[in-house]
């Protein structure tokens, strides 16, 4: 059992030694998609610790380093003799080759992008079913060094025009390696390859299913929280806090109290949705705080986006603290920390990962609140949180919703945030989302919403001229919010949204569509 009520069942799973590749997390995700637990661990974890966790197999990730770097990350040398099935990817296979007596040299040029491998023996355990007809398969490469001589005991199992060792294996010692990346979508047979390794080579059990994860998480929470302790949970309307609350409620029932601070910057019918789901359907104790006036007066006249964020963050903490004191004593505070956040903070310690960016979490709680933490999602990726949520009976309207920023609509109103402008935006935003849902596009789009600009523009309605607000619509596709592309919505959908907004939302005379990607723009307008 892991920290703060999180599940960590590595027994029989796949441990990924993290040498710092930006794809290391993705390897663990792909393995979990096969219903096998997988976790990242530090590249230099001693073999004794690895063995104690009884993994079915080990995957060595890639790395931004070269195996020549004197201070490049290296595993415990005892790993190679452990008898565990090992799959080395990119830097991982180069390490394997170099440390076991083969040779690695710099490639003539850095190989980056698609390549075609030729697979000689297609009954090979690792590569079975990976190639289409003709024994060749498209894969994705990203490396500067190449293996030039295989260690004793190893034989090549796939080649490309530029390397005879695109994949190699020592079947007797159960050591396997590939120069390409099976975890990325650009390697179409990658999933099959990982399946081959996980099931046919490592013989891992398929026990990581949403039902089991939920069961284990509930047991872990019950074990962490004492029999009389109470837990406080801030519901935000987002997926993470909703699923965390639902798990904790299953574990300790009414000793969980949820607080929902309505700062007046929420979307239309948000409070109704939460009341309906959590109080009426799930029977949870939920304390709704109407703090609209307080937030609006604190925001009055404020136009600077960062200033808005600061004010909202500060007021949120104050309201939350005031309300929680009214509700009695709590030993624990629930937090929706996810596995990627955990990896990020631990990989900083191991210094292996080159981290790209974290987002300031306005609307979150500070670290120094005097509670112990329950973090039931610490072991889970976002898609697993969603699967667990559905397993617990949470409705799709909560579990499959698009991300929404903590500062809410305040950062979607350019300029002054007033009740009137919020109401205008709420109505328009509702129409955008409603039409996108009706078109069946809601789930394939990362975020879709309306933005109220400070501009006014002339229009004509009936016989008269109008002068009203310019409203922008934004819809983006994205994998993780770090980069995004504007969604190519069908023109007739854009037309329906525009017509409805101008007809149904008083004060809006013009609708424009944002066609900027991120970068250079951000997803939100502020
Ligand atoms: P940007 O606008 O930076 O947003 O491209 C990336 C993702 O983060 C969300 N976002 C926020 N979330 N507090 C949050 O909790 C914030 O202050 C905030 N600003 C942006 C945004 O909705 C997108 O999903």
Structural topology:
Blueprint: E1 14-18, H1 24-33, E2 38-42, H2 47-52, E3 57-60, E4 86-89, H3 91-99, E5 103-119, E6 136-149, E7 155-159, E8 167-170, E9 175-178, H4 190-201, H5 210-224, E10 231-235, H6 239-252, E11 256-262, H7 270-281, E12 285-290, H8 292-299, H9 305-326, E13 332-334, H10 339-350, E14 372-374, H11 382-391, H12 396-399, H13 419-438, E15 447-461, E16 464-477, E17 485-486, H14 491-504, E18 508-513
Parallel strand pairs: 1-2, 1-3, 3-4, 4-9, 10-11, 10-13, 11-12, 13-14, 16-18
Antiparallel strand pairs: 5-6, 5-7, 7-8, 8-9, 15-16, 16-17
Describe this structure in words.
The protein is an alpha/beta fold. Helix content is 32%, strand content 23%.
List keywords for this structure.
single chain, 526 residues, alpha/beta, Rossmann fold, GMP Synthetase, Chain A, domain 3, 3 domains, nine-stranded mixed beta sheet, five-stranded parallel beta sheet, 14 helices, 18 strands, 32% helix, binds xanthosine-5'-monophosphate
């Amino acid at each position: 059992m892991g920290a703060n009520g999180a599940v960590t069942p590595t027994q029989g799973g796949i441990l990924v030694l993290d040498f710092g590749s930006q794809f290391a997390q993705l390897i663990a995700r792909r393995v979990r998609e096969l219903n096998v637990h997988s976790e990242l661990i530090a590249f230099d974890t001693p073999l004794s610790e690895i063995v104690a966790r009884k993994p079915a197999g080990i995957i060595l990730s890639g790395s931004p380093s070269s195996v020549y770097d004197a201070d490049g990350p290296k595993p415990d040398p005892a790993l190679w003799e452990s008898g565990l099935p090992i799959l080395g990817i990119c830097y991982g296979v180069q390490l394997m080759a170099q440390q076991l007596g083969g040779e690695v040299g710099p490639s003539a040029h850095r190989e980056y992008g698609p390549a075609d491998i030729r697979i000689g023996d297609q009954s090979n355990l690792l590569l079975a079913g990976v190639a289409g007809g003709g024994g060749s398969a498209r894969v994705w490469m990203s490396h500067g060094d190449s293996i030039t001589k295989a260690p004793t005991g190893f034989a090549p199992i796939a080649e490309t025009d530029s390397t005879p060792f695109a994949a190699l294996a020592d079947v007797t010692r159960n050591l396997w390696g590939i120069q390409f990346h099976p975890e990325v979508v650009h390697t179409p047979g990658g999933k099959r390859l990982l399946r081959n390794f996980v099931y046919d080579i490592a013989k891992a059990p398929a026990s990581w299913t949403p039902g089991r994860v939920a069961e284990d998480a509930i047991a872990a929470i019950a074990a962490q929280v004492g029999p009389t302790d109470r837990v406080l949970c801030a519901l935000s309307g987002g997926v993470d806090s909703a699923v965390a609350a639902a798990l904790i409620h299953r574990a300790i029932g009414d000793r969980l109290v949820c607080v929902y601070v309505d700062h007046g910057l929420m979307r239309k019918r948000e409070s109704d949705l939460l009341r309906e789901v959590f109080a009426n359907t799930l029977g949870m104790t939920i304390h709704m705080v109407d703090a609209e006036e307080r937030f609006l007066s604190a925001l009055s006249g404020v136009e600077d986006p960062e200033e808005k964020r600061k004010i909202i963050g500060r007021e949120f903490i104050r309201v939350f603290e005031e309300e929680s004191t009214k509700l009695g004593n709590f030993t624990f505070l629930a937090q929706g920390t996810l596995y990627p956040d955990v990896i990020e903070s631990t990989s900083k310690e191991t210094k292996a990962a080159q981290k790209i960016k974290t987002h300031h979490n306005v609307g979150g709680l500070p670290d120094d609140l005097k509670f112990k933490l329950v973090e039931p999602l610490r072991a889970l990726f976002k898609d697993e949180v969603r699967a667990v949520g559905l397993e617990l009976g949470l409705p799709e309207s909560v579990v499959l919703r698009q991300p929404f920023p903590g500062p809410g609509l305040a950062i979607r109103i350019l300029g002054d945030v007033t009740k009137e402008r919020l109401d205008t935006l709420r109505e328009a935003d509702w129409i955008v989302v409603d039409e996108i849902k009706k078109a069946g596009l809601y789930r394939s789009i990362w975020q879709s919403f309306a933005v109220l600009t400070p501009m006014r523009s002339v229009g004509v309605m009936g016989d008269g001229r109008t002068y009203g607000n310019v409203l922008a619509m934004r819809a983006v596709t994205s994998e993780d919010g770090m980069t995004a592309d504007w969604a190519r919505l069908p023109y007739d959908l854009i037309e329906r949204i525009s017509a409805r907004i101008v007809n149904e939302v008083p004060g809006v005379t013009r609708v424009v569509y944002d066609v900027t990607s991120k970068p250079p723009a951000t997803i939100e307008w502020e």
